[in-house]
């Protein structure tokens, strides 16, 4: 109910960059894994009203992180077979793939060496994309597409692979374990345990 | 997503992350609209499913609260509808009357449109969608289930013991000759020329071929 109404609104506001309408293309598989061997992970939707009623209020977190749109998006169905079909045909178009594309053309026609990409008949590399197809309809996914599907701007910051000497460590320990450096999961507050649950079930691949 | 895709291409992982996000991208990109118009697929073929809700019950299961405060207005997996359905009320006549009343009233407050009792379907369209489970099936269980499915799809009636015995008699009967047939087939020449397993001839001495002479080998003394 909520998902259908919200998705309709978004449909009016934005248009996704799935490039269908172009000539259909038969795209081969890019991995050896069979579709039946793959498992699709489905993000769990969250009922924040129920959580708040049960004395676990996370709505301020939603407002601060601007994630209410993302959780609204999770209230919807997942098309497992479609996702698998997309996944086994997906390929990453990054700077290495763009360079390989250029090198391949030069190998075929050495006179193209040193010329810009436009003259070689290939588009400029501007961003990393995932290329695939569903039922021969080409699909291109970029960061912007993901941002629009998540109903938020394509921006943010994250810290990857925190080290022991990081300046964030005392702040994390103070917040989660009240300054106890040897704190454990059991010492965490209810809200923080729930945050961890949300991270595992809704954000980070397991 | 890129990390998982690279790992999948290297056969290092077998899971696809962000299934719901990818489905939403397909939906908003118009892929599902095209499929819906063509009426070529249904939810079974697309493998439509929903994730399990995180709510008060989850808090209880995590031992964070001792009692769950539930209400009828709580979101449930069955309330999530497939995008292949348009303007379909998420209630049916199988729902409790107060649920139907609440929804009709809320719908009227929101849209000023009235849903007639006759317009409420008898059952949910296609039933509620299956909930994605994280539990992995063991290979043994999966094969057992597959075997059960095969049995269920092709039921074979049990055969009575008598029938089995009759079938065995029928099979044995023509295969083994009776004593009378054996007697009729007995011809001395054929029988006498038969060779047993030990390559010894059986029958009259006249039919035995001459035994080849075995020459004795002379022992040669070994000189030390």
- Largest interface pair: A-B, 72 and 64 residues
Number of helices of chain B: 10
Number of helices of chain A: 10
Helix content range of chain A: 40-55%
User: How big is the Rg of chain A?
Assistant: 22 Å
| Class inferred from helices and paired strands of chain A | mainly alpha
* Domain module count of chain A: 2
> Strand-residue fraction of chain A?
5-15%
Element string of chain B (H = helix, E = strand):
HEHHHEHHHHHH
The main sheet of chain B comes to: none
Helix content of chain B: 40-55%
**What is the straight-line distance between the termini of chain A?**
28 Å
Order of helices and strands of chain A, N to C?
HEHHHEHEHHEEHHH
N- and C-termini, Cα separation of chain B = 86 Å
The tally of beta strands of chain A, per DSSP, is 5
Main sheet of chain A, how many strands, which sense, barrel?
3 strands, antiparallel
Contiguous runs where pLDDT drops below 50 for at least 5 residues of chain B: none
Low-confidence stretches of chain A: 1-21
Spatial strand sequence of the major β-sheet of chain A: 3-4-5
